[in-house]
Here is the input.
Amino acid sequence: MRKVSKLNLRLIILVTVLLLNCKSEKKADNYISELKLAENISDFTSRMTEKDTVRITANMTMEYWVRIDELILTQKK
Here is the structure.
């Protein structure tokens, strides 16, 4: 009888912890960047904000050699 009560106690604690740790999904506001990369290519880093990210991908695949390089630029103050 004692083992059953310990098992019930453990199950109750486990369920309580799981319910307390569940987080509701908050929808983030969509950010629309004002960075126009085609117009400001020469000084885009000075016009970037902290929310902007520029991702540059280069596919350098040749016959049997596969390589893809990726460069991610972010602004930090």
Observations:
- Strands lie at 53-59, 68-74.
